[in-house]
Amino acid sequence: MRRGGNAIDAAIATAFALAVTLPEAGNLGGGGFIVAYLADRREVVTIDFREMAPRTAEPRMYLDADGKLRPRYRAGAWAAGVPGTVRGLGLAHQRFGKTPWPELVRPAARLASEGCRISADLAASLNRQLATNPERAPDRRRDDYGRLGDFPESVAAFGKPDRTLWREGDLLIQADLAATLNRIADAGPDEFYTGRTAELITRYMAGHDGFVTADDLKSYGAKVHPPVHTSFRGFDVYSIGPSSSGGVVLCQMLNILERFDLKADGRDSPRTLHRVAEAMRRAFYTRATMLGDPDFVAIPVHELTSKAYAARLARSIGEKATPSQELASFKVQPAGGDHTTHLSSLDQAGNAVALTYTLEDSYGRQVRRGGCRVLAQQRDGRFQLDPGPNG
Fold it and tell me: 235 by DSSP, 3-state: which?
């Protein structure tokens, strides 16, 4: 920004840097969203760069003949989607950036080639992922989730050269990632989708039962959409629309809560917390039943974010908690993961950016091709109306 860049430039540069310093969530191989306020135009715009399912993927590809989830269905090249991050950052720069593209990518390349000192959290995370017999949380079955340690390429990329445990302050050097970032800096975002990086990805996919093809990468496009909008006690609220569920859910919760005098009850009072929980419960029921990918299903966004729709939902909130199963005619999903990364940037001109991107699960599919980055899980929303717990 001191050299004349804007908030868009800052968000792009930070996102590339996080691909180096936060490998469990920062990424080149995932996808996400941008919501940006452009001060000179007094306009809010959004960019959708979620990862997509490959064209040859099928609705039942994760299921066996009995309709049960296949062992290790979340792990490996075959579970990876078509990445959107580089294309989305490139589109944001093309439309709204000011700083030359190479200047936004090369700092991340230097971080990867010269190394970055890792935190205690990252050291512990890498050790768990690389361990031969890691302790696993009760809800993460061994046959569902792979680990970096299951894939030789990932061990080579993230293991210490002497194979000892990582410790806080150790230097993490990622030479292959540095080479990828330098190619993207030199040739632009298209390099990831049609250049040497695309060739490396598709070659690995072909040899490891993956579905992503050269045509999938070449045809991927990020999209600029209008935001979803509501008001809350005199303030305008803008957020991302579908294929993200977050914006509609946020608007619906605020519209419900606007009908209650939360201030009178107190911020942390039992009644306020009850009403917030009930608003969330109803908005997430909407998410599970009416939200998905607008390329494949019709979504009544204006109705779902309207004050009238919220009024109908608010009338069903009483003084006692509503069991979620009473709202749903289907099995209520457990809580999702917390592997999504968010960053915000502001500049002196008044531009503001909210950027959210993800690998879906920690370290994505855990598989990594030399010269590339960990790849994200396929978008379940491409196949069904219910976007799933991480949709």
Answer: strand
Do 190 and 256 belong to one domain?
no
3-state secondary structure of 232: strand
Q: Is 286 a catalytic residue?
A: no
Closest CA to 53 of 240, 243, 180: 243
CATH number of domain containing 314: 1.10.246.130
Q: Do 147 and 130 touch, CB atoms closer than 8 A?
A: yes
- Give the tens place of pLDDT for each residue, 330-348: 777 666 666 689 999 999 9
Give the global pTM.
0.88
Domain boundaries, position 260: 225-327
Two structure tokens written together for 295: 């390329």
Q: Is 170 left (phi over 0), alpha (psi -120 to 50) or beta?
A: beta
Catalytic hit among 289, 322, 340, 356:
340
Q: Could you give the maximum distance between any two Cα atoms of the chain, in Å? A: 63
Question: Do 98 and 212 sit in the same domain of this protein?
Answer: yes
State the distance between the two ends of the chain, measured CA to CA, in whole angstroms: 34
